[in-house]
Amino acid sequence: MGRLSRILAVLILLPVAAVWAKKTAAPVEFKAGTPEAAKAQQDLVLSTLVKGNSEFRKAQAAGPKSHATKAPQAKAASKLPLRAMVLTCADSPMDAERIFHAHPGEIFSVRVAGNVASPDVVASLEYGAHELNLPVLVVLGHQSCRAVETCLANLAGENSDRVTVNGQALLDRLEPACTDAKKDGFKGDALLQAAVTDNVKNTIRSILEESPELWQLQHQGKLRVVGAVYTKSGEVKWLE
Ligand SMILES: [Zn+2]
Predict the structure, then answer these.
(1) Can you tell me whether residue 139 is helix, strand or coil?
(2) Rounded CA gap, 22 and 20, in Å?
(3) Rounded to the nearest whole angstrom, what is the distance from the C-alpha of residue 66 to the centroid of ligand 1?
(4) Helix (H) or strand (E) holding 210
(5) Distance 142 CA to ligand 1 centre (A)
(6) How many distinct structural domains can be found in the chain?
(7) CATH code for the domain of 213
(8) Domain containing 118: what range?
(9) pLDDT tens by residue, 39-67
């Protein structure tokens, strides 16, 4: 075979070899229980949530008549594995299965006004992490949260509504984030949005401070805790 023929043969065979290698490459598998396996599982859960939110937004853009705006209905929901815990607000748009276009039963959903870390909430998350072995917790705040808005109005002396004892306990949990956002000089809607973001970070901090068990799971790499904010456009913006 002449030199030119050899070069031509290599040029022809290289792409064929690349396609073959791609088809036959085995997926990387990690030994169960190792930190690498936990990380791979957490990455998969998070990418599934990102993809689900993208599908939800596409369905939203297609209009309310599109049946895809609803979360997909599973034929055998009970057989689907739970993937993530989502702590979010009780406000009506904050339906995690809808936002992440998940099947019923795929998300361990914990909802409370202002997505705060009250003892019952933390206990629920401990159950999800320990008993159900859920590897990811998303703390999901949202733009224009009425609980955060009420807390800011209270701090500004602009809330004329009577606050109950239980309501005050909730506002007390929101107050550090609202105070910090005010100190940072935000005003109007920017103040509300900054307080919402600060509150997500504050809730994550509180969960890990108030639960040594969750802190340990996170420290061991068995639980990944991430923050995010749901915007009015339906997009979930992930916090660093
Ligand atoms: Zn809210």
Answers:
(1) strand
(2) 5
(3) 26
(4) helix 188-210
(5) 6
(6) 1
(7) 3.40.1050.10
(8) 30-238
(9) 999 999 999 999 999 999 999 888 766 65
